[in-house]
């Protein structure tokens, strides 16, 4: 059936005539957000172009939501969605173009032809389960799966419309009084606990969609959305009319408790299709392998152990793809088995270390031994607190602190624990006493475990021996590492440098012009540390460069604006500038040699971006996932080089690596890599949630780049390493 032209009932049914370079030929439909047009690319490819309604285009919050829709749709583009071809969320009327999928929606199909046959329903079940699996693997929750958002072309079902989707780790909040979603297909937690909505909500919606496909009605039917909401939360689903072989599975999908619902993989496995219609959607299942008497055998393990082992096996498969004489799975089997065994051994060693209380009993072997070919690894540093470990390079090892667990040094080659110190019992030196969360830092060959305002413990990075400890009640914040020094700001307004090896004071004094200075940066090449202080009114910022070893002032300058030092490049200091709403609006480049400053406005206001410098480019990563590259050269004609919507709701600080790559972490445990030259996503790891739930943190530890590997940490308590040279295989 050809698409119908708009009748004019909505003002943009025929206008504008173009979205970007695409001519809009006909109206396919209209909704609350905008109008979907049929269009063609210059090569003749048919496209479906969504153009936002004019009244919404002027709403900054709506634009942000549309940017997230575009990012989510791009992220999950594949066999089970309509691939994104082009988009412009910044246009006067924002738009997005996807490949046109010829076929009716599920709602239109059922309305026209009635309920599906059992065979058709099995195929739909398997296809939608596979679609959700890929959507969730991309780190996205759809949140609005319903019959009108499912297309039925000959190639199998396609899921569309990511208008209210969000990443697992998104902290985007629903406005008070607004119901986001379609009540008959919303899960109970979407009404009761919207901040805790996870992938299981999409599984509940899948169950409701299947009931509609099988019966022509939903499992909760009423003319009032409020009554439907009550039924979803309190009443049992009506499965009358669903075939007997599928009713139990659909009922599990509609469980009130998200933890009782099956995952998409479990749905596909439960089908065990006897018919051809669904067989194409079910992948073969493989058991992990172990070695018994020199031959491979299936591993029988507890569910959590099996999941962890499978993760390592997948990681080893990816790492081994370029090694050995063979290129198929058989050629990789030896490495897979070895990786699985090393994981189980490492997990056992860590369990022993967790129960041991003395560092001397925890030291294992000598220095790190890097294998001939790097193999991805993961090591659990779990605690009841469910915190994400923070790590830093420490000589030849990797030093990590996990609140609620303690401190540990890992071999960066394979994640083996070298030594560990369990967190002390609650008291003056424990986090439970004052609510402060412990952290860590490394200075020279000394690793420090810090509870801000309470205590600092210094350990030798090589052996884990405690060297000294210091009461921090007279200090502000966490000591700042600078070579083999720890720079501190005291509550009386003075600055002090401590010898990292002994804890002795190197120097202590006030800084002219400062009353409460704060450390921001240390430049290793020059040995200069930068402190700053905003004026009471926020109209100016005093910046002072200090010689870290002596505390002598190198230069001092008062600059206009509410500024924060962000990095150095070519002898110049870069600072971010904020407005009165604490939004970052521009960059300031100050050259102390010429006493000259250059101000670079940003193309849009950003919320709390973390900034890293890559030569003459500043890379700003916003907490909401927007990554912006800005040219900071004086007199640059165009300051914006590129921008990327990563669809990550909460991010760590970004870290530069070799080969023009930028790495950062997401709150769901993913590690992402971006090409800094073109602003494209190179790869990302899978989410690693604690017990399947997202933990909301005020800040996230940044990843660590170690030669040819990148180390990330996740809220499930694991520290893991992947090959820095092949992000696409993560």
Automatic annotation (TrEMBL):
<dbReference type="InterPro" id="IPR017441">
    <property type="entry name" value="Protein_kinase_ATP_BS"/>
</dbReference>
<keyword id="KW-0808">Transferase</keyword>
<dbReference type="InterPro" id="IPR002372">
    <property type="entry name" value="PQQ_rpt_dom"/>
</dbReference>
<dbReference type="InterPro" id="IPR008271">
    <property type="entry name" value="Ser/Thr_kinase_AS"/>
</dbReference>
<keyword id="KW-0547">Nucleotide-binding</keyword>
<protein>
    <submittedName>
        <fullName>PQQ-binding-like beta-propeller repeat protein</fullName>
    </submittedName>
</protein>
<dbReference type="InterPro" id="IPR011047">
    <property type="entry name" value="Quinoprotein_ADH-like_sf"/>
</dbReference>
<dbReference type="InterPro" id="IPR011009">
    <property type="entry name" value="Kinase-like_dom_sf"/>
</dbReference>
<dbReference type="InterPro" id="IPR000719">
    <property type="entry name" value="Prot_kinase_dom"/>
</dbReference>
<feature type="domain" description="Protein kinase">
    <location>
        <begin position="22"/>
        <end position="275"/>
    </location>
</feature>
<dbReference type="InterPro" id="IPR018391">
    <property type="entry name" value="PQQ_b-propeller_rpt"/>
</dbReference>
<feature type="binding site">
    <location>
        <position position="50"/>
    </location>
    <ligand>
        <name>ATP</name>
    </ligand>
</feature>
<dbReference type="Pfam" id="PF13360">
    <property type="entry name" value="PQQ_2"/>
</dbReference>
<dbReference type="InterPro" id="IPR015943">
    <property type="entry name" value="WD40/YVTN_repeat-like_dom_sf"/>
</dbReference>
<keyword id="KW-0067">ATP-binding</keyword>
<dbReference type="Pfam" id="PF00069">
    <property type="entry name" value="Pkinase"/>
</dbReference>
<keyword id="KW-0418">Kinase</keyword>
């Amino acid at each position: 059936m050809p698409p119908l032209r708009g009748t004019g009932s909505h003002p943009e049914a025929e206008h504008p005539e173009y979205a970007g370079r695409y001519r809009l030929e006909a109206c396919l439909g209209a909704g609350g957000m905008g109008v979907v047009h049929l269009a063609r690319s210059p090569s003749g490819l048919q496209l479906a172009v969504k153009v936002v309604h004019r009244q919404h285009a002027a709403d900054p919050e709506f634009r942000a939501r549309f940017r997230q829709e575009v990012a989510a749709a791009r992220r999950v583009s594949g066999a089970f969605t309509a691939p994104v071809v082009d988009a412009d969320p910044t246009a006067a009327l924002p738009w997005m173009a996807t490949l046109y999928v010829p076929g009716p929606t599920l709602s239109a199909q059922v309305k026209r032809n009635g309920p599906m046959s059992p065979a058709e329903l099995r195929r739909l079940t398997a296809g939608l389960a596979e679609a959700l699996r890929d959507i969730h693997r991309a780190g996205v929750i759809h949140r609005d799966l319903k019959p009108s958002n499912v297309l039925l072309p000959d190639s199998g079902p396609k899921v569309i419309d990511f208008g209210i989707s969000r990443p697992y780790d998104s902290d985007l909040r629903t406005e008070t009084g607004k119901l986001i979603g379609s009540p008959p297909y919303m899960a109970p937690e979407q009404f009761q606990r919207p901040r805790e909505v996870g992938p299981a909500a999409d599984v509940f919606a899948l169950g409701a969609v299947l009931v509609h496909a099988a019966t022509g009605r939903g499992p909760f039917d009423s003319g009032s959305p409020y009554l439907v909401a009550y039924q979803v939360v309190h009443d049992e689903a009506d499965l009358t009319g669903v075939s007997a072989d599928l009713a139990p599975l659909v009922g599990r999908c509609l469980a009130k408790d998200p933890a009782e619902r099956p995952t998409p993989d479990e749905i596909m496995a439960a089908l065990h299709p006897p018919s051809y219609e669904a067989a194409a959607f079910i992948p073969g299942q493989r058991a992990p392998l172990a070695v018994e008497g020199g031959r491979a055998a299936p591993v029988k393990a507890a569910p959590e152990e099996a999941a962890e082992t499978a993760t390592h096996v997948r990681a080893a498969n990816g790492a081994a793809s370029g090694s050995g004489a063979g290129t198929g799975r058989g050629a990789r089997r030896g490495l897979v088995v070895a990786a699985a065994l090393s994981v189980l051994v490492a997990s056992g060693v860590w369990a022993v270390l967790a129960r041991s209380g003395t560092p001397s009993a925890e030291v294992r072997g000598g220095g790190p031994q890097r294998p001939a070919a790097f193999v991805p690894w993961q090591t659990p540093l779990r605690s009841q607190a469910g915190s994400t470990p923070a790590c830093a390079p420490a000589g030849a090892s990797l030093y990590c602190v996990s609140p609620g667990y303690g401190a540990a040094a890992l071999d960066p080659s394979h994640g083996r624990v070298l030594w560990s110190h369990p967190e002390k019992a609650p008291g003056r030196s424990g986090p439970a006493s004052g609510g402060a969360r412990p952290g860590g830092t490394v200075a020279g060959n000394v690793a420090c475990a810090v509870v801000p305002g309470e205590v600092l413990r210094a350990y030798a990075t090589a052996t884990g021996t405690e060297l000294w400890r210091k009461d921090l009640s007279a200090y502000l914040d966490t000591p700042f590492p600078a070579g083999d020094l720890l720079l501190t700001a005291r509550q009386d307004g003075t600055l002090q440098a401590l010898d990292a090896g002994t804890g002795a004071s190197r120097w202590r004094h006030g800084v002219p012009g400062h009353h409460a200075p704060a450390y921001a940066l240390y430049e290793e090449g020059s040995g200069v540390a930068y402190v700053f202080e905003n004026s009471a009114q926020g109209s100016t910022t005093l910046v002072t460069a200090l010689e870290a070893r002596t505390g002598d002032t190198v230069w001092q300058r008062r600059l206009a604006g509410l500024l924060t030092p962000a990095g150095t490049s070519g002898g110049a200091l870069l600072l971010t500038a904020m407005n009165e709403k604490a939004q970052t609006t521009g960059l300031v480049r100050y050259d102390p040699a010429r006493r000259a400053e250059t101000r670079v406005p940003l193309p849009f206001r950003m919320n709390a971006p973390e900034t890293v410098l890559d030569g003459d480019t500043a890379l700003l990563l916003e907490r909401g996932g927007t990554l912006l590259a800005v040219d900071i050269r004086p007199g640059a004609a165009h300051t914006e080089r590129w921008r990327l919507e990563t669809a990550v709701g909460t991010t760590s600080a970004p870290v530069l690596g070799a080969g023009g790559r930028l790495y950062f972490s997401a709150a769901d445990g993913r590690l992402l890599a971006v090409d800094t030259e073109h602003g494209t996503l190179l790869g990302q790891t899978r989410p690693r949630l604690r017990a399947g739930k997202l933990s909301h943190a005020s800040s996230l530890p940044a990843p660590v780049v170690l030669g040819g590997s990148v180390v990330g940490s996740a809220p499930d308590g694991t520290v893991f390493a992947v090959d820095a040279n092949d992000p696409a295989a993560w």
